[in-house]
Each structure stands twice: as C-alpha cells, then as structure tokens.
Write a structure and sequence with these properties.
By secondary structure, this protein is α/β, with parallel strands linked by helices. The chain is built from 13 helices and seven strands. A five-stranded mixed β-sheet has the order 3-2-1-4-5, sandwiched between helices. Helix 8 packs across helix 9, helix 9 packs antiparallel against helix 11 and helix 10 crosses helix 13. The longest helix has about 35 residues. The N and C termini lie far apart (about 70 Å).
Length: about 375
Amino acid sequence: MIKLDRTETPAAAEHATVYLAFELSKAKWKLGVLLPGSQKLSRYTIGGGDLAALTARLADMRKKAAADGRPVRVLSCYEAGLDGHWLHRWLMGQSVINHEIDPSSIEVNRRARRAKTDRIDLEKLMRTFLAYLRGEPRVCSMVHVPSVEDEDRKRRTRERERLLKERTAHTNRIKGLLHGQGIRDVSPLARTFIKDIAKLRTGDGRPLPARLKEEIAREHERLCLVARQLAELEAQSRAELRSPQPASPQARIMQLIDLKSIGSVGGEVLVNEAFYRDFDNRRQVGGYFGLTGTPYDSGQRIREQGISKAGNRRARKLAVELAWLWRRHQPDSELTRWFNTRVGDLKGRIRRIAIVALARKLMVALWRYLTTGVVPTGAVLRPTL
C-alpha cells in the first residue's frame, strides 16, 4: 500500500491527479497507475511502443479520475534509456506532465541478494516519483529533455566521433596485416597506397600473398569511404559557421572559437553537448560535466574518491583536453597562472588531478563568457581578420 498522506498540496487538492509510472522494455511496457483516493497501485501491461493501447489506457484513467467532478491531470515518469525522448514528447502532446528520471540517481537496496523484478521496480519507481513530487531533496535526478532541434544538432558531432573511431580501426587493421609480414611504416591513407602494394615485399623478400592483398584492398575501400564521409561532415560544419545568425548555436560556436586554444571542432562539441542548455550556477555546470568531487567521510575513514563522472562523458573528455590546450595557448591567463602556482614542476598524478580542477574552472569561465560576454581574466582573443 502506498501512503499519499503528504501529497495533498494545494495543486493536488484542486485537481484529480493520476500518477503513472512506466517500466519500459523492447517487448513489453509495464504501467503502474495510482488513481485519486486510491492507495493501491494498479498494474497493466501493453506491447512495447503500442500507442493505441496506451491512448486507450489514458482515456480510461481520465474517465475514472473525473468521477468526482474535479479537473483531471496526469503526472507520469519513466527511466531514461533506450527509448530516448520521443515518448516524453508524445506524452506531453497528450496533456500528460511527464518526467524522465536518471536511473543511476535512484537509491537501491544494497543487499548482496536483493529481489529485482518488474513488479518491484515499478513500485520503487512510483515511490521515488511521489517522493520527488513531495519535494524531498535529492531523492532522484530528472533528465533535462532537449528540444528536437538541440537533440538533432548533436548527431553531426557524435557521427564524427564514431567515424574517427572507424577510421582508426581500419587504419590499424591494415597496418597490423602488413606488420605481420614484416612491412612497417606504411600510410594507408596515401593516395598511391593501393598501387604501392604490388611493389611491397615481405620481411623475407617475398611478394605479398594474393589473398592478403585482396583483403587489404577491401579494408582500404572501407577506409576510403569513412574518410570521404568524414570530410563531408566537416565541410558541412564549416559551411554552417560561415554566416551564423545572431543568438544561434553557430554564433555561440564562433564566440568560443574567438578564444585562442578552442577550434571549430571543440567549440561545436561544447555547444552541442553542453552549452545548448541553461545553467543556474557554476555548481550545475560542474555537475553536468561530471567534474565535481565525491568526498567519503565516515567515522575514521576520510578520503577523496575523485570526480563523480556523472555527467556528459563526451563533454567531460573534451573539457580535460581543452584544459591542456588552454595552458599552452593562454599562458598569461588567470587560470593558467593558478595551475602553474599549484603544480609548479610536479609531474605525474598530482599534475593530472590539477588539470581536472583546471578543466572544471575553465568550463565555468566559458559558461560565463557565453552568457555574459565577459572574457576569462587574462585570456587572449584571436585577431580579427
């Protein structure tokens, strides 16, 4: 039985509120429904993605909730995952107030052998959702759902990341095949690579075997396709940055590029992955990048566990890379002087820890730069052409 004693807020009293929780999977969707005045969680099962069945179930919920004459509202939630954000947008279009919950933010039983079923998970999700609506602090975290345009804008940078990995894999495969024959220092991306294969000799002086040359040729064909697609993506990105509209994401990218140490790729990834959304303070910026500390202080055990890594991994990786570049290209900035004062000539682990701290400070400075236009102290802008 779920107690609703603390959910009678003024808004809840003015409406007949239906609470809905989803447990999503590819084949089946489990629905947990809590009707007004009921303390029993009703459970239903529909096919995965069956919107017709879901529409009928929503209509039935609203019909039952409207029996006391008050206006009906439906509050729903589900864990963010494979289904992405399309269901959230569909529910909002059906006048359902939906929330996406970060699955890793929900506390679970720490027993070594804890029971876990869809039934238990659905009830746990509903309890967490009700606690969040009551205003209990830190009970869970809600996912910021981007607009369709912001989500689609990420596709290019993420496809570029995937193509770079594929290019590296094809290149290493070709080099590995030739290395196994005693052939070193080859450039698979050279224009004359295929022609040069016929002239190559193995380490013991033999020509390359026929089947090996055929395999390398096919691998090289896939490599050329990836390289061509990568060039097309980069050309499209450059074209969009030539004449950006004021206050557009492209304009924010150009604003970042104006700072030395940040290039077109870095600026595009930062805006598309992080700075497309609004932050209220510097703590939210550090938390989104996953660069906040995680202290452990219990009894006599006091230690720092490192950064949380709970944010956007792509943005966090780029932030650390930009911190190294910032030191090189902005030596007179206040951030670089802070790093040099703290680290000095130290090497190794201390230096790596300090660069993460610099990355967090740099991301906060860039956020302020984009929102207020204030250049980080001591930073140098690129000369205007």
